[in-house]
Structures are given as C-alpha cells and as structure tokens.
Design a protein that fits this description.
The chain is mainly alpha-helical. The protein has 18 helices and 4 strands.
C-alpha cells in the first residue's frame, strides 16, 4: 500500500514538474530546410512532389521536351528568327490569357474574351480609320469599352446571380453580332501605316543595347525585390531566403534572359510586343501577389463564404476581375489586329478562345480557383506557340495542331486534378 502511495506521489510530482516546464518553441520547417543547405532543398522538393505541389515543373519539362523534339526534326526551330517570331505571336493572346488567369483564380470562366477582342478591334478601326478620330483616342475608347463589357458581365454574375458560364456565353454570341454590325459591309478594315496598332507587333528596337538593357533591368529588379523581401521577412522574424539562394536564383535568371536577348539581337532586335507583354505580366503579378486586392481575389476563389465572413466585398471583387479580363481582351485584340493587318469580322474567332484558356491552364492555373500565378499565361502561351511554330515548320495541317493542343490541355487538366487530389489526401488543401 505504501509503495503504491509513493508511486502515486512520484507520478504527481513528475506531472507538476512537467507542467511548470517552459514550452518548447515551434520551429518553422522552412528554417530547417535552409539550414540543411542543398540536401534540405532536395528533401523539401521531394516532399512537395509527393504532396502534389508540382508548381511549374510540368510545363517547364514540357517546354524542354518540345524544344528537343522539334529541334531534332527541324534545325531552324531554335534559330534566332524562329524565336523572335514566337516572342511576337505570344503577346496578343498571352495578354488575353492574363485576364483569364484573373477569372480562373475566382474559380470561374469567361467564354467571351474572343468576341470582346473582336469588338474592341472593330471599335478602334471604325473610329480611327472610318471616322478619322485620332489613333490614341480610338485605342483608349476601345480599351474602355472592353472594361465596360467585362464589368457588365461581372454585374450579372455577382449581383444578379447568373452563372458566369451562361453570362459570358451569351456575351460571346452578343458581342460577336455587335462586331459584325460595327464592321458593316466592310469585310475588313486595314491598319493604317505608322499607327499605334500597326507598331504593336511590327516595331523593333534594333539597337542591341535595348535587349541587353532590358535583360539587365530585369535581373537587377529581380535581385532587388528578393533582397527587399528577405529584409522585410527578417525584420519581422519570419523565415527568409539566405543570400546564397537569392544569388543562385539571380544567376539562373540572368543566364536565361541574357541568352534570350542575344538571340533576339541576332534577328531583328527587341520586339515592342514582347516589351508590352512583359510589362503587363509584371504589373498584374504585382497586383495579385503584393496588394490586398490580390489577396482578396485568392480568398474569394478559395472560399466565397469564408471571404464574405472576413469582410471582403465579394461582388466588387468579381465585377472588377471581369472588368480586368474585358480590358485585357481588347488589348489582346488590338495586338491580333496589328499582327493580321487590320480588324475583321472574324477577329477573335477560330481557336483564339481555346488558346487563351488553354494557355492559362497549361501554365499551371487551377480550374478550381484559388491557385495559380500570372506567369502561367507566359508559360502556357510558350507551350502552345512553340507547338504551332514547330508544326508550321514541319508543314503540318492546322487540324493536327488543334488535336495536339487539345491533348496538351487535357494533360494539364488531368495533372491539376491529380495534384489537387494528392494534396487533399496529404492534408494540404
């Protein structure tokens, strides 16, 4: 009996000592990864892959495979002229794809971007060419019209409750009719020589300093942003990337962008279209990742009800996102008009809508909302345009291009679905 009491006493004493002990502070796993150096990053990479966090890995590997295959079939695929053409062709539809990324982050879809692009090009052509309005004002009014159309879609979706699929499908039909009506009896309106729209895809900065200068600014801007972000995180006692990692990332980026600048200078120089596209990517990426508005978009896409309870105006976010998509659709339409030589009744039709949506999804933006990056538009368009460029060099028919692009899109959606399922089973959603 006494032994039992003693045991109970020792147990009680032990429990008291344990309760009074200071709690062990939790250690952020990212700190442990960075402390382990290269081995830690490899381990973390394997963990993310097993957990379904693939990021941009599939699309980057896909680009490498595409480059190897087409270069082996046609030695001119990776030539300077071919790469220069790809950099121009991706701009128009790539800018439209950025708008689609915004919409997909909400977990919605916009089927009207092709017809909105056509309406925007028609408005510019009728005002500038047919009615003699100044080119600058005509372009501005066309872009504002795109924003108004997008906000119109967003209003019916957010305020009235009509599904975005139905609203934008109706818009696709309605704006296509308006486009044909605006063009009147004219089958097409040619782009005036020297106009803003013509220069969008036909102007090049021929001085080699332009391409190398842009590359230098890109590298320095990236390095500065990484250092500033690391400094802010350290000041807040949050995990931050070590300088060695920042330096390695910067060197890799420098190799890529300076190699691209070299190739462009071997052809016609730095295309204005590429500069504008990159500016749109950088600006919208900043909005999505560095502003409260961007965080609200992710919140609404992740869970509408949770976002509403957090005090976010879901309706305003939805309307503004569709307005952004409409705006960028018109900008992309002007690029297409520049590339094709003018506005037509069929501008924005054909495979434009398919390519734009496919680019966003192939690049890594989830169809289920709440996950994706603006740079998905660039990666996805590179995949699509590289396939088209390679098949054109091989003399393949357009229907073959459609089938291959469709297969790539299906593969991207399958990867996204499997990734989400894997993350859910791993408890990461």
């Amino acid at each position: 009996m006494s032994d039992t009491l003693k045991d109970r006493g020792r147990s009680t004493t032990t429990q008291v000592v344990d309760d009074s002990a200071a709690p062990v502070p939790a250690v952020d796993p990212r700190l442990l990864v960075r402390e382990q150096g290269l081995k830690g990053y490899v381990t973390e990479f394997k963990r993310k892959v097993r957990g379904g966090e693939l990021g941009s890995i599939p699309v980057v590997l896909g680009l490498i495979v595409i480059g190897v295959i087409f270069q082996s079939l046609d030695a001119s695929f990776l030539s300077a002229d071919s790469l220069s053409n790809i950099s121009i062709y991706i701009a128009g539809q790539g800018i439209m794809a950025v708008g689609i990324v915004f919409v997909l982050l909400l977990g919605e879809i916009d089927l009207s971007v092709g017809s909105v692009a056509g309406v925007g090009a028609a408005i510019w052509a009728v005002l500038s060419v047919s009615h003699g309005m100044s080119d600058e004002l005509a372009v501005l009014l066309a872009i504002l019209a795109g924003a108004a159309i997008g906000a119109f879609h967003g209003f019916f979706f957010a305020k009235i409750g009509v599904p975005a699929f139905v609203v934008t499908l109706a818009g696709f039909l309605g704006w296509s009719g308006l486009q044909i009506w605006l063009m009147g009896n004219e089958g097409s309106i040619n782009t005036p020589s020297g106009s803003i729209v013509e220069n969008l895809t036909n102007y090049y900065f021929e001085d080699i300093a332009a391409a190398y200068g842009l590359a230098l600014v890109t590298v320095l801007g990236y390095l500065l942003s990484m250092l500033l972000d690391s400094g802010r995180r350290r000041a807040a006692d949050l995990p931050a990337r070590p300088f060695s990692e920042i330096l390695l990332r910067t060197v890799v980026l420098a190799v890529v962008v300076f190699a691209a600048a070299y190739e462009l200078n071997q052809s016609r120089g730095l295309p204005l279209a590429l500069v504008i596209f990159l500016a749109v990517l950088v600006g919208t990426d900043f909005i999505v990742r560095r502003t409260s508005y961007g965080r609200q978009i992710f919140a609404v896409g992740g869970s509408t009800e949770a976002a509403r309870r957090a005090g976010i105006s879901v309706e305003k976010v939805r309307i503004s996102v569709f307005a952004i998509a409409g705006t960028l659709a018109v900008v992309g339409g002007l690029f297409i008009a520049s590339q094709s030589g003018g506005a037509t009744k069929s501008l924005g039709a054909g495979n434009v809508l398919m390519n734009v949506i496919a680019a966003a999804v192939i690049g890594g933006t989830s169809l289920f909302g709440g996950r994706g990056k603006i740079w998905s538009a660039l990666l996805g368009m590179l995949v699509i345009q590289s396939i088209q460029q390679g098949l054109n060099l091989l003399g393949m028919a357009s229907e073959i291009q459609f089938m291959i692009t469709g297969a790539v899109l299906l593969a991207a959606v399958v990867i996204d679905s499997v990734s989400r399922r894997t993350q859910k089973s791993a408890g990461r959603t």
